[in-house]
Amino acid sequence: MRGIFITFEGIEGSGKSTLLYNVAAAMRRSGLDPLMTREPGGTSLGVALRKVLLDPDMEKIGPIAELMLFAADRAQHVSEVIQPALETGQIVLCDRFSDATVAYQGYGRGIPLDVITSVDEQARSFMVPDMTVLLDLPVETGLGRARTRNDELLNAAESRIDEEEAAFHQRVRDGYLTLASDEPHRFLILDAREKQERLSELAMEEFRMRFPDAF
Ligand SMILES: Nc1ncnc2c1ncn2[C@@H]1O[C@H](COP(=O)(O)OP(=O)(O)OP(=O)(O)O)[C@@H](O)[C@H]1O
Ligand SMILES: [Mg+2]
Across all residues in the chain, what is the average pLDDT? Predict the structure, then answer.
């Protein structure tokens, strides 16, 4: 028995957490029991690493150090949370995974993609998501939404990446789109400017089509 591993990707403010929450609610209404998790932060090690990675007062973390911190988080998350859940047949909904590492550390920061891949393959134990939902939207729209949300939450502690320049986020967006065009069978690209309810419907329709036995 193996569950289904679905990841949610996109730039900041694209609506990953919102969509994940909404599809989890829709699944529960159909009697399913999905596991919601996120990176960084799905384990107690991950929570500690998340604080370090997103802390605006932290000294500038270099690209390789950052890659290794994300990899440490992922290795623990895969072995402690994701694999055990899939082995019991659960649906796992994960907010960011390996594509985020390739998009941010690779396309965004410029670490060679073969370096990323060799570190990341170990971190994820060669696991690949069954499906990845990419929420795509213009960088200004996403960052604008993320800023509004952060102001509302007074959550300055998580704003380090949000403050980086638009050019970086543009490379990340383009990187995600390249990944999606390299693996069209795995990705579902959604226009993140659609309404929340519509995005949830579109994602659920696709899940039902791709995994008819589970839904
Ligand atoms: N489809 C949508 N249309 C308009 N606003 C949205 C939509 N989805 C989410 N939002 C709003 O945009 C903001 C960012 O959404 P959310 O936190 O889900 O994004 P995220 O991709 O998880 O961001 P981050 O990468 O920073 O965690 C929130 O205030 C949310 O309410
Ligand atoms: Mg989020």
Answer: 94
Any domain includes 77:
yes
User: Which structure tokens are listed for 147?
Assistant: 């800023």
How far apart are the CA of 29 and the centre of ligand 2, in A?
A: 23
Average pLDDT for 38-56: 93
Q: pTM for this structure?
A: 0.94
In a domain, 76, yes or no: yes
In a domain, 215, yes or no: no
* Ligand 1 pocket: which of 7, 17, 23, 169 to mutate (most atoms within 8 A of CB): 17
Q: Residue 157: its pLDDT value, please?
A: 55
Sheet holding 131-136, edge to edge: 35-38, 91-95, 4-9, 131-136, 187-191
Q: What CATH number corresponds to the domain at position 183?
A: 3.40.50.300
Domain range holding 80?
Answer: 4-210
Pocket mutation for ligand 1, best pick of 7, 18, 53 (most atoms within 8 Å of C-beta): 18
Residue pair 39/73 in contact (Cβ under 8 Å)? The answer is yes
- Which residue, by CA, sits nearest to atom 23 of ligand 1? 13
| DSSP H or E segment with residue 123 | helix 113-123
pLDDT on residue 150 = 80
